[in-house]
UniProtKB/TrEMBL annotation:
Source species of the chain: Mesotoga infera
Name of the protein this chain belongs to: Cyclomaltodextrinase
All residue ranges annotated as the Glycosyl hydrolase family 13 catalytic domain in the record: 16-373
Enzyme's top EC category: hydrolase
One Gene Ontology biological process: carbohydrate metabolic process
Protein origin, superkingdom: Bacteria
Alphabetical list of InterPro entries matching this protein: GH (IPR017853), GH13_cat_dom (IPR006047), Glyco_hydro_b (IPR013780), O16G_dom_2 (IPR045857)
Length: 456
C-alpha cells in the first residue's frame, strides 16, 4: 500500500460545508418548524439547507477558487448535524436523498472539482435499527455484540449503561473489534464510491477508532479509487497515523492551536511559535505535511472573525499564513464573507446570500490568496525555509525550482524592518514597502515577495 497521498492534494483548496446551513434549494423537503434563514441557530432545529442548494451555488464556489468540497455528514439521521446516523446507505431526505448526491457529484466533477464525505464510523445514533434491535431483544439480538452494552435493560439515564461517544447517550459506539461491524462499515465506504463516485472520506473522531480499521478504510478507498483522499479528524499530535498507511492527511487542529496562541491570544511570541511549528512539522513524514487539512474554523469551533473581535488585520495575517504554509488550506463556509459565530451551535449560522451584507474586502482578500497559491508552485509544493522569528515578526520562505517566495508577517503594534538582502517583487502586501534591500512593515502588516531566477 502506497503511503503517500494523491498528488492532487497539493493543489487542493477545500471548502467545508454544513449542508443544513448553506442554502435551501428545495423548500418542499424542509423538516417541520424550520428556522427562518438568518435566525440564530438552535441545536435541535433546522434551517432547511440541502444538496440541491449546494448545486445552485457551485458556480459561486468555482468563482471563489476552491476546487474540493468537504460535506459534514449527509446520511439519514434525526439531527441537523447528522453525526447520529440512522442509515448509512441513504442520503437524508431532508437533504434531497440519493439522487441529489449523485447529481451534486456529477456537477462538482463537471467543474473540475472534487468532493469528500464525512464518515462517522465510531458511533451511530440511537435510532439506528441495529441498536434498536440490540436494546429491545437483548442478548438474543444478532446485533448485541455490535455495541458495548453493559447490562439489561439498556438505559440512557442517569448515565448510559453502554459505551457512547464522549458520554453522549444519543451516539452509541460500535464494537470495532467485531469483524461483522467492520465489514458493514467498509461496505459503506465501498457503496458510496461505487454509487456516487465520491473522491474520498473525512473520518470523524479518528482517535476513537481502531488503527487497523482506519487502515482498512484507507485501503478500501484506494481499491475503489486510487486517487481517493482519506482524511482524519485529529485533535492532538497524530504521528503514528502516518507511519503505517493509516491516513493521507489530518485536520490540523494542533496548527490551529498555535495560530490562535500567537496571532489572537498573544500567549506565545514569534520565537516560540516558530519552535512549535518546527516540532509539529518534524513529527510527521515530510509528505504528510503537504496533505494536512489546515484550517482555522470548523463546524464545532468558534469562527475566527468572532475570536478576533473585529480585528480584521489579525484575520488577514492568519489567512495569509494558512495559504502560504505547507498543507491544504481549508475554508469553512461563510468565513470568506465575514460570518461570525461563537461556540457550537452558533458557529453554524446560516450562510449569508445577501451580497450587501458581505465583507467584500475580506472576500477579495480570499480570492487574492487563492489566486496567489494557484499561480505559485513554491506555495503549493515548495520546501519550507524558516526565517526571522523576533517578537512579533515572523518570516519564512518557500522554494520550488527557480521560484522563491518570502512571507513576512508583523504580528505587533509597532513597525518593523526586515533585511531581504536581494531585490524581490511584492506580490501581496498591506502597509509594506521596500527601501533598497530592507522591507518596512507597519503594525500588523504583511508582505509576500517573489524572486524567480535560473539559480535561486
Amino acid at each position: 500500500m502506497q503511503l503517500k497521498p494523491p498528488e492532487w492534494t497539493s493543489d487542493a483548496i477545500i471548502y467545508q460545508i454544513f449542508p443544513d446551513s448553506f442554502f435551501n434549494g428545495e423548500p418542499y423537503n424542509d423538516p417541520p418548524e424550520t428556522l427562518n434563514w438568518g435566525a440564530s441557530p438552535e441545536r435541535n432545529r433546522f434551517y432547511g439547507g440541502d444538496l440541491q442548494g449546494i448545486i445552485h451555488k457551485l458556480d459561486y464556489l468555482r468563482k471563489l477558487g476552491v476546487n474540493c468540497i468537504y460535506l459534514t455528514p449527509i446520511f439519514d439521521a434525526p439531527s441537523n448535524h447528522k453525526y447520529d446516523t440512522r442509515n448509512y446507505f441513504k442520503v437524508d431526505d431532508a437533504l434531497g436523498g440519493d439522487e441529489a448526491l449523485m447529481e451534486l457529484v456529477e456537477q462538482v466533477h463537471a467543474r473540475g472539482m472534487r468532493i469528500l464525505l464525512d464518515g462517522v464510523f465510531n458511533h451511530c445514533g440511537v435510532e439506528h435499527p441495529f441498536f434498536i434491535d440490540a436494546t429491545s431483544r437483548g442478548k438474543e439480538s444478532r446485533y448485541w455484540n455490535w455495541f458495548h452494552i453493559d447490562s439489561i435493560p439498556v438505559t440512557e439515564s442517569p448515565e448510559p449503561n453502554y459505551r457512547c461517544f464522549a458520554g453522549y447517550g444519543k451516539m452509541p459506539e460500535f464494537d470495532l473489534s467485531n469483524p461483522q461491524v467492520r465489514e458493514y462499515l467498509l461496505g459503506v465506504v465501498r457503496y458510496w464510491f461505487e454509487k456516487a463516485d465520491i473522491d474520498g472520506w473525512r473520518l470523524d473522531t479518528v482517535e476513537y477508532l481502531h488503527p487497523d480499521f482506519v487502515r482498512a478504510v484507507r485501503e478500501t478507498s484506494k481499491e475503489m479509487k486510487p486517487e481517493a483522499y482519506v482524511l482524519g479528524e485529529l485533535l492532538h499530535l497524530g504521528t503514528s497515523w502516518f507511519k503505517g498507511g493509516y491516513l493521507d492527511g489530518a485536520m490540523n487542529y494542533r496548527l490551529r492551536k498555535y495560530l490562535l496562541s500567537f496571532f489572537v491570544f498573544n500567549n506565545i511570541d514569534a520565537k516560540t511559535f516558530g519552535e512549535k511549528l518546527y516540532v509539529l512539522r518534524r513529527s510527521y513524514p515530510d509528505w504528510a505535511n503537504y496533505a494536512m487539512y489546515n484550517m482555522i474554523d470548523s463546524h464545532d469551533r468558534p469562527r475566527i472573525t468572532t475570536l478576533c473581535n473585529g480585528k480584521k488585520e489579525i484575520v488577514r495575517l492568519i489567512l495569509l499564513f494558512l495559504f502560504a504554509y505547507p498543507g491544504v488550506p481549508a475554508i469553512y463556509y461563510g468565513d470568506e464573507i465575514g460570518i461570525e459565530g461563537g461556540s457550537d451551535p452558533d458557529c453554524r449560522r446560516s450562510m449569508i446570500w445577501d451580497e450587501k451584507l458581505w465583507d467584500r474586502e475580506l472576500l477579495e482578500f480570499y480570492k487574492k490568496l487563492i489566486e496567489l497559491r494557484k499561480t505559485s508552485q513554491a506555495l503549493r509544493k515548495g520546501v519550507f525555509i524558516p526565517g526571522t522569528a523576533d517578537n512579533g515578526l515572523f518570516t519564512f520562505e518557500r522554494g520550488y525550482g527557480n521560484e522563491r517566495v518570502v512571507v513576512c508577517l508583523n504580528n505587533s503594534p509597532v513597525a518593523v524592518e526586515y533585511e531581504i538582502g536581494k531585490p524581490y517583487d511584492i506580490l501581496l502586501s498591506r502597509s509594506a514597502r521596500i527601501d533598497t534591500c530592507t522591507l518596512l512593515l507597519d503594525p500588523y502588516a504583511f508582505a509576500v515577495l517573489r524572486k524567480t531566477t535560473e539559480n535561486v
